[in-house]
Amino acid sequence: MRVSRLLFVLAVLLAHAARGDPLQHEFLLLPSAVVVGTYDRQSPETQIYDQVVQADALLTLQKGPFKLFGEYLLSDHEGDLERFQLGWQMSSDTVVWIGRYHQPTSVWNHDHHHGQYLQTSITRPWIDEWEDLRGALPQHFTGVLIESAHEVFGNWRLRTAAGGGVAPKLTNDGMEAFDLVHPDSTRRMGYQARASLHPDEFDETGFGILVAADALAADGLTIPGGVGLDHVDLQLYGAFGAYAGESWKLTGTVYHAEAQLHYPQAASRGDSFWVGYVEAEQRFARDFTGFARYEQSAGVADSPYLRLFEQFARTRYVGGVRWDFLEHEALTLQLTNSHMLNGHFSDVRLQWSAALF
Known about the structure:
CATH architecture: Beta Barrel
CATH topology: Porin
Mean pLDDT: 90
CATH superfamily: Porin
Number of domains: 1
CATH class: Mainly Beta
Radius of gyration: 21 Å
Distance between the termini: 36 Å
Largest sheet: 16 strands, antiparallel, barrel
């Protein structure tokens, strides 16, 4: 049975099982539009779309202990069912999901998802970029995700998330996540886990660790020199932290990746590299927020894995200001200087974003 049909059948069964409970629902629409200009370009590749208009729609339904969550992104270059999850509230502290989910080891994407209004900066750290925008790490999986939060050490909360499912595949156009609407069979599996400690249940302040082991199938992919690639075993280890004060916030993540590239007609090749970022945000009077982010990497110049992603930024400087001029609407101006594997460029972006309930 196709995965999409199986999820539909499960949704019907879960709704029937909880038909005696009232149906609760929430809907959120996150539209945005951005214009971009580049300058000082010394690279054949950039990460730039001249202009992007998009709307991210999120829908949550709950009936008794059962949940249904969906996220659909529509933009001028794609329309994609980003997440579709069926959930069971096992207890007040634990939810089990089945479906397509955001992998838990990307702290940035776990907090901001696809909605531009939810993040202060216009761009996300390049190491956490989405697959269809030439991101180098898998971000979407289809399988099982378990999320929980428990009290430990007094009032501190331990938040955990662990998942396993069908991993994205590598193609000549970049990484491609499993599509629930148009599924295919050329896939391998991946597993991820994250754990963090926080002073209380809803506090952004906290710190934690993450780990992932993903097998990425290569579908018709040839690397420079015409050599075919069969698959890549990718291990990821990391640590992250955040401090949120009354008027400022500091966040950071560091990843260590180990990749083993397997070729049909040749010996496998190992690879490892480090990537990290730190972002500071300061709120000012009249609803202005200034932000700055520094992204850095090590061991990437000769990385055979990252050579599959020519748009990877080994170093990037980001700065700007956001103005929340109306309730649930914002204008953001951002300047960026990116140093790629094969050159550098700078860009300026202006974005409008909103949240509509």
